[in-house]
């Protein structure tokens, strides 16, 4: 493919703290598209005043998969770079992206390894040492699995590659922000489980919550992250507990 072009995509809701740096980090893309879920903060104002070339759309949020697939439908170019507003493409990663898509033997999709930050500080363990997500792929081969409302993933991809340089992930600047995300995700995951007719079992709710804490804190070495490791392990356990709590409500 000669002169391959990139569409950089973001879905947003109340990202006034992140949107400017996120958009700057993908300014090398041939087009930037933002699909916003009717933000009530200054997200839209920042985009319109500081990034007039960005193509801005709005759609009421139902779940992450529907938002991503809708945003994907607006893209005009073959290569898709999908970024979360709390992620940043570094100069080294940018160079690797541009080099890779010009490779005649380029794969159809690529994982990005992510360097995780919590409350402004890097997290080295707690499962983040193996964290990676597909962020670069060809539009012709990728779409998001509509059977998952959260932790959405691309389907029909064959043997994705992995880029060497890290994507920076400034996940949350406060405990409260992370807590609210955990609750939101738990509600969506509960709906997925209900649609699959997964029964609510109290024993499973407790056992999965305990195991998730143990897995993140011990097996994934959260203990080496100090206080951050304890917090992240607790929130992982809370995510499981709340998911089954909401699942129980789905059956009422």
From TrEMBL:
Residues 7-120 form the Glycosyltransferase 2-like domain. The keyword Transferase applies. Keywords: Transferase. One of its GO terms (molecular function) is transferase activity. CDD domains: Beta4Glucosyltransferase. Belongs to the glycosyltransferase 2 family. WaaE/KdtX subfamily. This is Glycosyl transferase. It comes from Chryseobacterium taiwanense. The lineage of its organism: Bacteria, Pseudomonadati, Bacteroidota, Flavobacteriia, Flavobacteriales.
């Amino acid at each position: 493919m000669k002169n391959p072009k990139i569409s950089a995509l973001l879905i947003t809701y109340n990202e006034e703290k992140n949107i400017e740096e996120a958009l700057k980090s993908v300014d090398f893309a041939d087009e930037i598209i933002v699909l916003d879920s009717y933000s009530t903060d200054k997200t839209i104002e920042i985009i319109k005043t500081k990034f007039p070339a960005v193509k801005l759309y709005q759609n009421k949020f139902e779940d992450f998969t529907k938002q991503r697939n809708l945003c994907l439908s607006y893209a005009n170019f073959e290569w898709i770079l999908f970024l979360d507003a709390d992620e940043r493409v570094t100069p080294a990663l940018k160079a690797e992206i541009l080099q890779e898509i010009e490779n005649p033997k380029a794969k159809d999709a690529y994982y990005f390894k992510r360097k995780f930050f919590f409350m402004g500080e890097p997290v080295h363990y707690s499962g983040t040492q193996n964290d990676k997500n597909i962020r670069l792929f060809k539009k012709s081969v990728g779409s998001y699995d509509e059977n998952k409302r959260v932790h959405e993933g691309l389907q029909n991809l064959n043997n994705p590659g992995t880029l060497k340089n890290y994507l920076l992930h400034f996940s949350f600047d406060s405990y409260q922000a992370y807590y609210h995300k955990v609750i939101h995700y738990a509600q969506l995951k509960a709906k997925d489980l209900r649609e699959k007719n997964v029964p609510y079992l109290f024993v499973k709710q407790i056992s999965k919550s305990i195991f998730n804490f143990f897995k993140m804190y011990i097996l994934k070495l959260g203990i080496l992250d100090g206080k951050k490791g304890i917090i992240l392990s607790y929130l992982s356990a809370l995510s499981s507990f709340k998911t089954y709590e909401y699942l129980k409500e789905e059956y009422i």
